[in-house]
Write a structure and sequence with these properties.
With 114 residues, the protein is an alpha+beta fold. It has helices at residues 2-21, 36-46, 74-83, 95-99; strands at 25-30, 51-56, 62-67. It contains 4 helices and 3 strands. Helix 2 packs across helix 3. The protein is elongated. Bound molecules: copper (II) ion. Copper (II) ion binds at residues 33-35, 37-38, 102, 104-105.
């Protein structure tokens, strides 16, 4: 009886967590940066309202963001990363913001596209 009750509870918990996840999507995009300071800065900048999870990989320079597209758009996320000095594959950071980055964070910038 206990086992049955436990499995019913687990199924309920699992379906609840699926519900909480409804509407969220996960996207990956390139964000240029160098070090763990960059990682902190980029992830902090991406953790805006509507974002459940933001992770930046120091090796691949790929940001993985799980977010609710009704609250924040992918385009806005690119702008948030660029806003703290990090170019993305879509949005280029302001030169002044880039220049103010810590020395070790001055990553090699990709060719400007916009
Ligand atoms: Cu850095």
């Amino acid at each position: 009886m206990k086992a049955i009750l436990f499995s019913i509870l687990s199924i309920a918990a699992i379906s609840l967590s699926f519900k909480a996840d409804a509407g969220n999507i996960t996207e990956k995009f390139k964000v240029y940066g160098n070090c763990t300071m960059c990682k902190e800065r980029i992830e902090k900048a991406l953790m805006v309202k509507g974002v459940k999870y933001a992770y930046w990989d120091i090796e691949t320079k790929m940001a993985t963001v799980k977010f609710n597209p009704e609250v924040v758009t992918l385009d806005q996320l690119h702008r948030h990363a660029a806003g703290v000095g990090h170019d993305t594959d879509l949005v280029k950071a302001d030169d002044k913001v880039y220049e103010n980055l810590h020395g070790c964070c001055k990553y090699e910038r990709p060719d400007a596209k916009n």
